[in-house]
Amino acid sequence: MINRRHMLLGTAAGLAAPLYARAQSNTVELTAQYSIPELFRGLMEDVSTEFSKQNPNIRVNWRAPEQGYEEIMQRNLRDAITRSLPDVAFHGLNRQRTLLERDIPVDLRPFMTADPKIAEQGYSETLLSLGQVGGKQTGIGFALSTPILYYNVDLMRRAGGDPARPPSSWDEVINLSRAISGLSDNTTGMFFDWTITGNWSWQGLVFSHGGTMLNAEETQVAFNQEPGLRAIRTLRRFVDDGRMPDIRPATMFTDFFSGRLGISMQSTAQLGRYNREIGGRFPLLTGRYPLSAPNGRVPAGGNVAMMFTRDAQKQRAAWEFIKFATGPIGGTMMVNHTGYMPATTIPAEREEMLGRFYRENPNHLTTFRQADSITGWYAFPGQNALRITDVINDHLQNVVGKRAEADATLQRMAADVQALLPRRS
Questions:
Q1: Per the domain annotation, does 370 fall within a domain?
Q2: What is the pTM of this model?
């Protein structure tokens, strides 16, 4: 027989079940994805954890990260075909165009316009523009970088360099590299990482010499003109005059962190890693990327947070997450983990966020000091954008490996890229 107590318990349980179900149904589940886990894994977990504390009704589920920007691009292009895109994804600046050409990202401008608290984000208009393609706000900068030079101060001094006056031209960098290489058989002068995301480093060399990738109409390769010729000759001079070895970035990192390499050209994204790995073994100095023309520029690197979901409820939740990740709190966490700069200016202005951090870590200010020279990370048009970066990378390898001369390689590279550009009437 069922007594009164059992009836009450049963009734309570019956009432509790739908309440619990309703509570669960009010939780929005977002899927998100990023790349370069060696830089971002811990940071992304921390950002989503902190976000969930402030937004308990939104849960962010991370997909397995891809190795790099090219890999996450290929993955998400396949996801678009199978209709399995993540709700939010962090893509390289130069991949926004390819995604927009396939109508994948959601324009974030309407969300920004409708948000009454958008001014509290402190977004820099200059850095915000890096996420604008085709008249749309395709993304908002999460982690933004520029190419800089890293110096082992001990080796610099031993080779006659002055840390108070680091090189301001490639000639000075090459001369210092050669001097460092002559210190001992176990010492290497420099490594210019020409492999970074396919062609970012190549754009840095061309832009800093005053050149462009294509003409204004985007119908003709332009990096084979005079600025590009000087750029590729400079790359070869790193090898011939600066005694740069043909090694992979993994070897470069090991050599620099152990104190056997004097100069490294890398992204500011790696600064946090440099600090951790060196661990006080020797003083580290960062310097500006040399500009070789009055109109020289450096390409912005890094990634933007993008919204892919078309579901209205998920869009509202995705906007809250993107706003948090790219805003003052997420930006502060990002800088503390890496060497990137945020799209928001607020953390640097507030002592409790990054004001004190920047004073105590002046190496992180180098990228801000060359902010007046930043230009966009160029995205090649058309279906062959990914193939073009591979082609450029392969030709640069031939120059660094001394398998081909610089001038002839540039013309072959230009012809190969031209053949991959969209045909226009």
A1: no
A2: 0.84
What CATH number should be reported for the domain holding residue 280? 3.40.190.10
Residue tagged 């392969």 (tokens): 394
Work out the number of other CB atoms within 10 angstroms of the CB of residue 78: 11
Do residues 144 and 271 make contact, with C-beta atoms less than 8 angstroms apart? no
- The first and second tokens of residue 151, run together, are 């110096």
The conformation of residue 341, written as its DSSP 8-state character, comes to B
Contact 160, 179 (CB under 8 A): yes
How many independent structural domains does the chain possess? Answer: 2
The predicted-structure confidence for 173-230, as pLDDT tens digits, reads as follows 999 999 999 999 999 999 999 998 868 999 999 999 999 999 999 999 999 999 999 9
Q: Considering only CA atoms, which of 203, 423, 392 is closest in space to residue 301? A: 203
Give the closest residue to 377 by CA, choosing from 76, 92, 73.
Answer: 92
Residues 356 and 388 in one domain: no
d(CA 51, CA 408): 53
Q: Is residue 138 part of a domain?
A: yes
**Structural domain contains residue 16:** no
Residue 240 belongs to what domain range? 147-299+380-420
Identify the sign of the CA torsion 347, 349, 353, 359. Answer: positive
